[in-house]
Amino acid sequence: MAEEATIRTGLVFDERYLQHNPGLKVLPNGEAYPWVEPELHWSNHRLVQRTKQLIDLSGISAYLKLLPPRMASLEEIERFHTPGYVARVERLCIEGGGDAGQGAPVNAGSFEVARLAAGGALTAVEAVYTDEVRRAFALIRPPGHHAVANLGMGFCVFNNVVLAALHAREVFGAERIVIVDWDVHNGNGTQQAFYNDRGVLFFSIHQDRLYPSDSGLLEQDGEGDGKGFTVNIPLPAGSGDAAYLALFDELILPVIDAYEPDLILVSAGQDASIMDQLGRMCLTTEAYRRMTSLMINRAERHALGKLVILQEGGYSETYGPYATLAIIETLAGSHAELPEPLPYERIVAQPHHSEVGPSARTAIDAAIEHYKQYWDTLG
Question: Which residue among 146, 185, 302, 370 is the active-site one?
């Protein structure tokens, strides 16, 4: 078991996160699927529940400091979200549930759980700034990166990573924050929050035109003082480990080094995995380990180690928890050696694992060409 003095990684988790119930999967007309056994909504509790079970079964818990989350105050949530939207979500939940916007279903208890998710993000930020831990993972739900100021979207109620960044700025004086969003869908809510703001450098790596289909385009690169500080990198379906790692090496890391952040936040949706149902990317657990390691390295180089990773999407109930465990293992500096669901001898034989495909190469080169007008380090 790790000695207390060596435990420098925090884990935010609370059983109450499992109580957010978005209901069942439904057809486009709103009716449930016609199966004998109904299917739970894509954003159900199982990803987070199974991830926590893997953490405990693997023994990685011994290398983590549990950080009990607090509930975010209304004032903290309204740093980004409009008071009218917050009140609307609360009223909707009091009335038994419904849709908090566009595809953001809530139930009777979701308002408190969503406040606890936002508070979990704030708890993680507080822990790294007070040196309780050096880095932290927030295993929270509901997710947040699609939520805009006045509307829930894409399973997201309150934008946890935006609230984390604003908390770091207002309470701890952060001046240069990097947010890396590797969820397979564009982080449109986070993009909205900081589109005019050079104090936050936002990267979104996502499947091109997946969701939202009109957001995350290459030319959406910020405006005003924030021009060039929103870095959208749409990749073609089928991109795998090699493409993502090349993107980090050739674009993301050089720009982070030029920016010299004092805090790094990651919106970690593991729905770019090879087994996910709502994306068509091909990442393995090894890619998540490598990307996490790169984020640790840059946090140590520029931000005194301050790194907070927040759970976003992930819809493979089998593989998603292993991908998230890979991130947490890397943060903790330990490896559980649990058998994984995929036969790696077959995976490594696939071209997308070790080679950047032609369409991905074109997308990466286009992104570098576009953003080098703002970042000399890419020239």
Answer: 146
Distance CA 117, CA 370 (A): 35
Which two tokens mark 159? Answer: 């934008």
Element (H, E) at 364: helix 358-371
N residues, the chain: 379
Q: Would you say residue 32 lies in a domain?
A: no
pLDDT along the chain (379 residues), means of 10: 69 98 90 90 97 96 97 98 98 97 97 98 98 98 98 98 99 98 98 98 98 97 98 97 98 98 98 96 96 98 98 96 97 88 77 89 98 95
C-alpha to C-alpha distance for 228 and 241, rounded to whole angstroms? 26
User: What's the whole-model pTM score?
Assistant: 0.96
Containing domain of residue 226, as a range? 4-26+38-378
The CATH number for 63's domain is 3.40.800.20
Cα 345 to Cα 242: distance, rounded to the nearest angstrom: 16
Token match 């595809």: residue? 103
Q: How many domains does the chain have?
A: 1
- Which of the 8 DSSP states describes residue 103? S
Asked if residue 31 belongs to a domain, the reply is: no
Clarify whether 335 is annotated catalytic: no
The CA dihedral of 46, 24, 92, 67, to the nearest 10 degrees, is 0
d(CA 154, CA 124): 24
- Please report whether residue 202 resides in a domain: yes
